[in-house]
Write a structure and sequence with these properties.
- With 458 residues, this protein is an alpha/beta fold.
- It folds into 3 domains: 94 residues, Rossmann fold (3-Layer(aba) Sandwich); 179 residues, 3-Layer(aba) Sandwich (Rossmann fold); 159 residues, 3-Layer(aba) Sandwich (Rossmann fold), CATH 3.40.50.2000.
- It has an 8-stranded mixed β-sheet with strand order 7-10-9-8-11-12-13-14, sandwiched between helices. Strands 3-4-2-1-5-6 form a 6-stranded mixed β-sheet. It has a 6-stranded parallel β-sheet with strand order 17-16-15-18-19-20, sandwiched between helices.
- Helix 15 packs across helix 17 and helix 17 packs parallel to helix 18.
- The mean pLDDT is 89.
Amino acid sequence: MRIVIFGTGVFYKNRKESVWKENVVAFLDNAPEKQGTRLDNRMIYAPEKVKDLQYDYILIMTNHKFFIEINHRLLELGIPQQNILSYDEFLDIQDSKESSMRIYCRGTADEIWSGEKRVLLLSHELSNSGAPIVLLNAALVIQKNGYKPVIMSPKDGPLRSEIINHGIPLVIDAWIRKKNTFLWNWMIGFDFIWVNTLDFSYLIDDLSESGVQAAWWLHETDISYEIIGMNKMPKAEKIIPTYGVGERAIGSFKKYLKRTDIQNLFYGIPDKSQEKKLTFALIGSISERKGQDIFVDAIELLTEEQKEKAAFKIIGEAIQQHIYDDIVVRSSQIPCLEIMRPLDHDEMIQMYQNIDVVVCPSRMDPMPVVVTEGFMKKKVCIVSDMTGSAGLITDGKNGLVCEVNAKSLSEKIAWVIEHQEELDSIRDEARKLYEEHFSMDVFEKNIMDIICGRETKE
């Protein structure tokens, strides 16, 4: 099957592994600066050039907000509707083909096919980002308690090696859908299915009808519902038990799905506390949502004397290039600010010993793992009031909460710089937050309550 892909942004990049099973002829994109360049060794053309290409289908790879507009544009260019596919329609075609299952494990793969006390955990990706990491922690809890966890993901990634090193079998298949009959029948043969993140919303109705014991664990806020689209959300009156990481994730679920049957489940992270060194750090993907621009603005508002008393780091992968380019240019004029390369999770754990204050000025963030790791390591954490973590913090007691603007954040940074004698108490109280809400003991109890059918308290 020959396909032309319309769209070269994040939507495509996050799903391209499934697309390249076919013969990709070329790309189309509305952005003039992209036209005439190459992506994944294929040319990017203006939409009008489609008449010069040979293909079977045009695959639109954008979120639902732009699909209708692009579809209409293609129809105006004379493309028959039957030759235009949405990403879901493309997956439906793929589902009818042979499974692409890949299995990674130590020893033989016998344990993934049969046996008792098997738990399947669905991870939307295998990156070193928050949701996949805490799902691995859930798998370790399940493994510790005598169950046999298997993790499955549609996408490969750097977390794969860590999963295998823990002796947990891993299955990668790009098409995790009911129409993939072989895979689906294998999935519902597990004793329990743990579904991680909103990305698998399209599976929830089918899982709810299957009768298999399952749980759905959500980490997202409003923007994810907007991107994924309400047409992918469950429609059944009653769905599998659902859990959210804090009030932000729970609030977004209630707002968009108009359902109230959701409970809180904080994740747990292992205690890997290290020695401390005074530094302010913003850790996370460089994007508008994470607020690196707010951080840089806040640093610029500090007095020169305050800047001399502190060091600042931005650590993360560039997701939005224009944000990254802007902060790199501006950092050249701020000697106390360093833009660091992305670090894998093990490197980041080591980096915490060089960090004194974790800064999270996100415009929206459900329950950022970096803040929880800050609590664990007794760091002073400054978070915006649009993070789920803010709901646990009493300002000035166990952390600091700012508004989503540079002035407010700068004031909190300045307070920390000028009141270092008061920080030990905040560090101790931050550690209590970790122990009370995010320790592996608490997480283990909550996980096993769900697996064993006991009522959770949070």
